[in-house]
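User: Can you write out an input/output pair for a complex, sequences first and structure second?

Assistant: Here is one pair. Inputs:
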Amino acid sequence: MSRIVYLDGNLVPHEKATVHVYDHGFLYGDGVFEGLRIYSNKVFKLKEHLDRLYESANHICLQIPLSLEAMTEAVNKTVAANTLADGYIRLVVTRGVGNLGLDPRSCAKPSVIIIVDSISLYPKEMYEQGMEIVTASTIRNHLNALNPRIKSLNYLNNILAKLEAIRAGVPEALMLNQNGEIAECTADNIFLIKHGRVLTPHINAGILEGITRGTVIELAKKLAIPVEETTLTRHDLYAAEECFLTGSGAEIIPVTKCDNRVIGGGKPGPISKKLIEAFFKLVRQ
Ligand code: PMP
């Protein structure tokens, strides 16, 4: 099915949605993006995603050429043009077309691209039975090199870790930070459960502040399950009762094995199941 793409103010068929080879998003990964979900024709947590997009852009001194209101309208308009009740949105803002030098000042105007399509990151069985991951030797970007809070178009750090997962024959890799602490997976945040408490790395561990992560933290609080943002190491993971990952693409997926070690009982645990149920209830409301 032909998808309709928003490209700098116009809705165009996806075959015609092309970017210039001198766009610095293409040449240097100079730009920012968001991945959002559509549930029952409605964009999930649109405001939160747009706030993060504008914060990422602000960090790299990229002036998005649309106001927050105009961007909200553009997203909703693109969703409506695609008639996809449940789907995924990729919102990209590139530095725009410049010359072959690095200097962003050669780029006259940032480009805004909104793609609507379906997504399925992992097989259905893994959501029911749990997924296996490995720890990557590639560490997550240092906060002072490229802060992982910037959702930038430069994902090579994550891709290098993903390649390690693929080589190990599993779908995802755990990334540590420069101190050997747990940061996140290549496109998902991580949660552990120990002694009935939900634990997740603090933002200062060098992670993306996931919108799904925020939703799960809120849900845990509502369900009166203790939740803590804290420093975690692989010791905590190996000794955890349960583990799961969160992301707009992945939604919530239990992890039952890491580095060939069984986590907890080797099956999705009761607290993970409770949070997964609450999450899907919320999004399908
Ligand atoms: N960490 C990374 C590195 C990501 O790219 C993502 C988004 N796929 C996440 C975490 C999860 O963030 P969100 O829940 O906002 O999709």
